[in-house]
Sequence to fold (335 residues):
Amino acid sequence: MSVHSTEVRLAARPHGWPTAETFEITRAEVADPAPGQLLVHNLLMSVDPYMRSRMDDRESYVPPFKVGEALQGGAVGEVVESTVDGFKPGDTVLHGLGWREYALVDARSAAKVDPSVAPHAAYLSVLGMTGLTAYAGLLRTAEFKAGDVVFVSSAAGAVGQVVGQLAKHKGAAKVIGSAGSAAKVAFLKDDLGFDEAFDYHDGPVRDQLKRAAPDGIDVYFDNVGGEQLEAAIATMNVHGRITVCGMISVYNATEPTPAPRNLAQLIGKRITMRGMLVTDHGDLRDAFVRDVAPLVADGSIRHHETVFEGLDRAPEAFLAMMRGDGQGKILVKIA
Ligand code: NAP
Fold:
């Protein structure tokens, strides 16, 4: 029995910032599942910065989205039909075909999740890809150790909120976060327990960071790039470590952006600056869940989600996430 499904397609590749014209919301017929496939009714989906890179037609670590086809991304849904042993109607699965009501999912790329253990949203945020990014990027890539002073940018976002709290929980001497509004600064300090936080619009980041960390920083978890990366290098102690997780400040740039002007400081300070991709750290998933799930369950690690209602609001949710008009992880409730 085929179904009709609403889906969000890439209508045109954006030049600079995506607009409403970048997306097309349309109806499509979804075929019966072939052997090895599941028909999944999506309930909740994620919008993420990496989707912006996939809208461009350029070589990257993930292939570009195709114009005229539905976008893709993390989603949690309920199996409606299954051709595969081990999956049955009613199972809840995590998979990569969001941006549509119904998805034909290859069972090998679906993972069963238990909604009685954690809510759907957690599997797309603190216990999902963004949580694992924070865990691997802090503990493995930055080689965090107790006593470090840690600075994280986009700290009130999906990855950042976990980085800061995890560092604090694991014995950081001080955790500093930057974010884009006074409300987010208050959220970091009052709700998430950051020691220091500042709004990067409130003056030169280098000056604000120096005030927050007069004795320097040991770890910078970079989500943003640009001015914040330059300020972190300037403030970094000898043998400091930088995890290059993301550089959202340049994702919509239409011209090449300048490198940090003080890169030469990496030499004298013996700074390690290392890029990371969460997909390289799947081996940490079990340890991550064992370590972090109890902290989420007992409230030691808090997580905030901003949920947009309705698949037709997914483009709006994506743009809000890119602009910073939401707090924590941005999700879209499909059903
Ligand atoms: P997020 O932080 O929840 O959302 C993006 C945030 O970036 C916005 O809310 C906004 O918050 C901030 N932002 C936008 N433009 C900015 C600018 N010009 N300067 C400073 N901040 C800006 O997103 P996320 O999912 O947690 O991802 C955070 C970063 O990690 C992104 O760069 C993403 O690409 C990267 N990432 C990498 C991996 C990996 O495997 N390497 C995996 C996941 C995510 P404000 O209101 O604070 O400005």
Notes: The domain at 129-279 is CATH 3.40.50.720 (Rossmann fold). Residues 48-50, 130, 133, 154, 156-160, 179-181, 184, 200, 223-224, 245-249, 276-278, 321, 324 surround NAP (CB under 6 Å). The mean pLDDT is 97. Residues 153 and 178 are 5 Å apart (CA to CA).
